[in-house]
Write a structure and sequence with these properties.
Length: 401
Amino acid sequence: MSGLADRAAKLDADDPLAALRDRFDLDPEVVYLDGNSLGAPPRHVAARMADVIGRQWGRRLIRSWPEGWWDAPERVGDRIAPLVGAAPGQVVVADSTSVNIFKTLVAALRMPPLRPGDNGRDELVVDAATFPTDGYIAASAAELTGAELRPALPDELDGVLGERTAVVLLNHVDYRTGRLYDMAQATRKAHDAGARVVWDLCHSAGVLPIELDALGVDLAVGCTYKFLNGGPGAPAFVYVPHRLQEKFHQPLAGWGGHREPFAMAPEYEPAPNISRARAGTPDILSLLALEAALEVWDGVDLAEVRAKGMALTGFFAECVDELLGDRVEIVSPRDPERRGHQVSVRHPAADRLVTALAEREVIGDFRTPDVLRFGFAPLYNTYGEARRAAETLAGVLAAAG
Ligand SMILES: *Cc1c(COP(=O)(O)O)cnc(C)c1O
């Protein structure tokens, strides 16, 4: 056991990102391995929110709208853009991921075909292992547009994609197993088949390099309260590349996406740019907390973040192997290149184990029916925490007999 402790200490001492942990307000007693579900707060966010509430809202009141509130969705979108490989003016922050999946799917299904004249495509292919909300929303988008749903795994698209495929909705990382899919390959396959692709980046945005522009991705959405640390319920982002903005006709044509919202015109006319992906009034408190939180990424190299994420999850898997053996089954890919920033472990009593771990100040989470998830946020998690989590799990299992 001391071997792992020594290794962890050495890995932490050599970690080029170690200093970033201090930018977060973390309870030193707690091993927090759920940043893939709710990111930890950066320290400076609380003071920023005191200003937003006390001065911007309290003193400036309604005058704050033109002083940086109304255009916050686009401004914060431009802060996220470099994290997902997008040039400015193509990302906007608004609404929830669920709502944005609805907007993007319906817009994609309404777009003219990728190849001119190639009409009659009526299938919406949906990730067969998708996070449930994506599947529910896809069904609702299909119902509205008359499309037919077709399930497929992101690495099993051959034989599914064809002349009927209109749109493909994929999760970059499987939320249950942590499997990371090859975005370049799946995007190419969709395009080769003449279909458009919508990526859900909820579990990858902020922890690994993503190249939306370079890969020619059609549309993408993602959460900001997970690895981007925006705070509970922070609004999600939508990516619409410049080349598709004019063709982006989303179904929630609210005044927020209007060309001139304050002209109060009776007819809807979409904004000529990314703003057309907005719908109503932005949730300023959450949006500005997210804006502040995003400052922790300043000067951070995503390749380095990815390298640490692979090393951290790999080290945790090694600790689990050594301390738990075959008493649990690791269901996340062993190949670090095919693994997101989480390690999922299967055990029949997973639910009870997660509760017992939390009582010992190790926070992971449970996903039905039998999966314990441990998320590793490279900006603040340490190798020492990975070891302590595995050791605590071993102790809990031993106590359970
Ligand atoms: C977390 C997550 C969501 C959450 O959607 P909300 O609308 O924010 O509740 C959706 N899809 C995936 C893949 C997720 O991981």
